[in-house]
Hints:
Oligomer: single chain
Number of helices: 11
Protein name: 2-hydroxyacid dehydrogenase
Distance between the termini: 29 Å
Domain D-isomer specific 2-hydroxyacid dehydrogenase catalytic: 2-275
Shape: globular
Bound molecules: 2-keto-D-gluconic acid
InterPro entries: D-isomer_2-hydroxyacid_DH, D-isomer_2_OHA_DH_cat_dom, D-isomer_DH_NAD-bd, NAD(P)-bd_dom_sf
Family: Belongs to the D-isomer specific 2-hydroxyacid dehydrogenase family.
Mean pLDDT: 97
Keywords: NAD, NADP, Oxidoreductase
Amino acid sequence: MLAERGAEIRGIVTRGRLPINAALMDRLPKLEIVSGFGVGYDSVDVAEAARRGIVVTNTPDVLTDEVADFTVGLTLATIREIPQSDVYLRSGGWNGGPFRLTATLRDRTIGIAGMGRIGQAVAKRLEPFGRPIAYHSRRPVEGLGYRHFPDLLGLAQACDVLIVILPGGAATNKAVNAEVLKALGPNGVLINVARGSVVDEAALVDALTSGGILAAGLDVFEREPAYMPELGRLANVVLTPHVGSGTHWTRERMADLTVANLETWFDGKGPVTPVPETPWTAQSA
Ligand code: 8YV
């Protein structure tokens, strides 16, 4: 298909599964726009796109609330072992006695790695729980009252729930490594709703198996749709198949924005939501 039609294609949509790299761009010599269905665009080589004058767009804002809601849900589900207690009930365990007592959010400091739009929406939702909130980002976010850590290790030392909402890509690859997990400690809970690449999955399995950390809630994995089989055998993890934004309501809005970017582009009005690496102004047309 690409060999026959590649030279005609001027716009593509990506869900982030396939790498949109120089090799693919070589096969699409007329490519003008890559419209991403999702806020993260780590699967697109944006530097290469910028160099070739190709615009890259994503779907920010429309999914912020959904992913933030989901993150709070996954955090509570992991700490209170809600899916495990569902399995317990369904498999008849209750007849033999009550479900085990679980950990609690009540004695915890919450750390958020990544304070972009979604990180801030997560923090806002967690405020009413009355727990201290701290965060890591390269620079402090203006106007935020939470304690800031310029390095992830410092945040991991200071908190015992670490919620990861960092962008994927080379800069954050395996940022949550064995050292960070050790700093999180034996009472630590890791929640990842960002990208699997941000966490060293093998180090995580080690930490979960050896008591290095208490539990993990994971919506994303290094090699989706695959995940390390060891994870599936552990009782102290909650695993979901990358569904943070996965509601009818939000996916419809993401789809609308994905299409709107293509429509306005081919109408000559420029993209609606270009990523910062491929900015578009009327003059750049
Ligand atoms: C996916 C996401 O885009 O927005 C993102 O970056 O990871 C998700 O919303 C969605 O699963 C489509 O593949």
